Amino acid sequence: ALAVECMNHSKLQRAAPLVLDRLFEVRPAAWILPAGLVVLLVALHAAGPHLTEALRYERQAVLAGEIWRLVTGHLVHADLPHLAWNLAGLLLVWFLFAGDYSAGQWLVILLASAVAIDLGFLFLERDLEWYVGFSGVLHGAMAAGLVAWLRAARDPLTVLVGTLFVAKLAW
Questions:
Q1: How far is CA 170 from the centre of its chain?
Q2: Residues 97-130: pLDDT tens digits?
Q3: Angle (deg, nearest 10), helices 80-97 and 32-46
Q4: 8-38 as b/e: b if 16+ CB within 10 A
Q5: CA-CA distance, 46 to 40, in Å (whole number)?
Q6: Which of 22-26, 133-137, 163-167 is modeled with the greatest confidence?
Q7: 164 near 116, Cβ under 8 Å?
Q8: CB under 8 Å to 56, separation ≥6 — which residues?
């Protein structure tokens, strides 16, 4: 019984590093997309509140034909703390999940997340007059990353991150 217990302990010790190894296997090139997003988000914020107002999602403006706001509203922020939280979220999502999809796949995920949010605003949140921020897109990216993890392995890290994500959404 002791030999079996020692063998199981040995397997557990080998498995634990593998769970965390996936976080550090990402190639530096995988960080080009989020680095570009950071530069874009910071530059748009630095341009000032007039640009934010011109680019934010505004329901009436979108319905009047200013459809670019469906994209640009996700790229501008209400204030510096809002931007900082979204940048921290972007870096966290990328640290966790960068290696799970190619840059092209991530672009599709980010765009699909933005489209889903915009459709929700237009059809389900008719009283929402305006919106700014990257948070919704980040939630879509987080969900996509967790789907990749769940398809690959249901290990303690996946359960922990998934539980924290659901708790954050519920809060």
A1: 17
A2: 998 999 999 999 999 999 999 999 999 999 999 9
A3: 180
A4: eeeeeeeeeeeeeebeeebeeebeebbeebb
A5: 10
A6: 133-137
A7: no
A8: 69, 72, 73, 76, 130, 131, 132
- Provide the token pair at 91: 């870096």
pTM value? 0.82
Question: What single string gives the DSSP state of each residue in the chain?
Answer: -HHHHHHHHHHHHHHHHHHHHGGG---GGGGHHHHHHHHHHHHHHHT-HHHHHHHSEEHHHHHTT-TTHHHHTTT--SSHHHHHHHHHHHHHHHHHHGGGS-HHHHHHHHHHHHHHHHHHHHHH-TT--EE--SHHHHHHHHHHHHHHHHHH---HHHHHHHHHHHHHHH-
CA distance 17 to 37: 31
Give every CB contact of residue 112 below 8 A, 6+ residues apart in sequence: 140
Structure tokens, 46: 């630095």
Cα–Cα distance between 135 and 38 in angstroms, integer? 13
* Residue type (1 letter), 47: A
